[in-house]
Specification:
By secondary structure, this protein is α+β, with helices and mostly antiparallel strands. It contains 8 helices and 6 strands.
Length: 193
């Protein structure tokens, strides 16, 4: 029984992550949209993907679409060494194409898609059929900060800091993939009868 619950939890946790093909497809669409506006394409970044995954999973677990459900964006992005950085979220849409369409139609979300200096992106989707919206989407976009630039911004002894919009934040270690998986499994177990 325990093994069956574990396997079920593991499968459900894996389903919350974006498949490689799905992630590549949406990143290609976002990159194409950026090029149409004279901006460079973006590439998938593991740290930003972890931040987006954490956000999407937290929204699905809680059933709440909110930027702060997994902690403030500034605290979640701090360890990624990105400046500038921005986040788009959505809930209830059925596909990445639908989600991208509504982001393009929203001035604030569109500005994030077209973040001028961005070169990196992470995307994620999570599902929870027991919530109002069922599907939760997250995208985090930013520019990788060079090590030298990071040290200059923070000072040689202060450790790296990240500028998120006009806010300085303290360094925060991002959870590992294993920690994210363990957290997802724990949350999913709480949903089982």
């Amino acid at each position: 029984m325990k093994l069956t619950c574990f396997l079920l939890s593991f499968v459900l946790a894996m389903m919350t992550a974006v498949s490689s093909a799905g992630a590549e497809d949406i990143i290609a669409l976002i990159s194409q949209y950026r090029r149409e506006h004279g901006l460079p394409a973006v590439k998938m970044d593991a740290k930003l993907t972890a931040v987006a995954t954490r956000q999407a999973q937290a929204m699905a677990t809680s059933g709440i679409m909110d930027h702060d459900v997994a902690g403030s964006f500034a605290s979640r992005i701090a360890g990624a060494n990105m400046t500038p950085a921005a986040e788009n979220i959505a809930a209830g849409t059925k596909t990445w194409a639908d989600t991208l369409r509504i982001w393009k139609e929203s001035a604030g979300h569109n500005a994030n898609l077209l973040l001028r200096d961005a070169d990196s992106i992470g995307v994620a989707v999570a599902r929870n059929e027991n919530t109002r919206y069922k599907v939760y989407w997250a995208m985090v976009i930013g520019r990788k900060e060079s090590k030298r630039r990071t040290e200059m911004a923070a000072g040689p002894d202060a450790g790296p800091r990240v500028k998120v919009r006009a806010t300085q934040t303290r360094e925060m270690e991002e959870p590992s993939v294993g920690e994210l998986l363990t957290s997802a499994i724990t949350r999913l177990r709480s949903l089982l009868p």
